[in-house]
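Hello, quick one for you while I still have it in my head. Could you read through the record and tell me how the tokens relate to the sequence? No rush at all, and the record is pasted right below.
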Amino acid sequence: MRLTTRGRYAVTAMLDLVMNHESRPVSLADISQRQQISLSYLEQLFARLRRGGLVNSVRGPGGGYLPAMSADDISVASIIDAVDESVDSTRCGGLSDCQQGDTCLTHHLWSELSEEIHCYLTGVSLGSLARREEIQQIALRQHHTMDDKRIPVSSP
């Protein structure tokens, strides 16, 4: 299976968004800081996620992004698909031209594996991930790390 950084980062950023929006937009700068993903890379990903109907953008002060639907209705596969990523286990990109233009002996095996992986990821929602205890603990740690990095403002 070959899932590139784009797909992994998109899923990570969307999970962060779902876990932190609390009915208000989340800035990409906050996601960038928590997940240690380049802000410019997140901007590219979220443009694709918005075009894919997975997020809504809010402009202006306090703006950012919100999930376009319930976290239970957003599958991991839909995120990967929205950023033009594929889960492909074949060497030929699913084109059946693995061996100098012909199908290789194991093409169908790897093609079926790719389909199984996509089906599995279709069945995993961001909501189900967000409810997992180990993921909640990681998110809590990330919040504490961000809070520790913020400079306290002294009062006059």
User: Anything to note?
Assistant: The mean pLDDT is 88. The radius of gyration is 19 Å. The first strand starts at residue 55 and ends at 58.
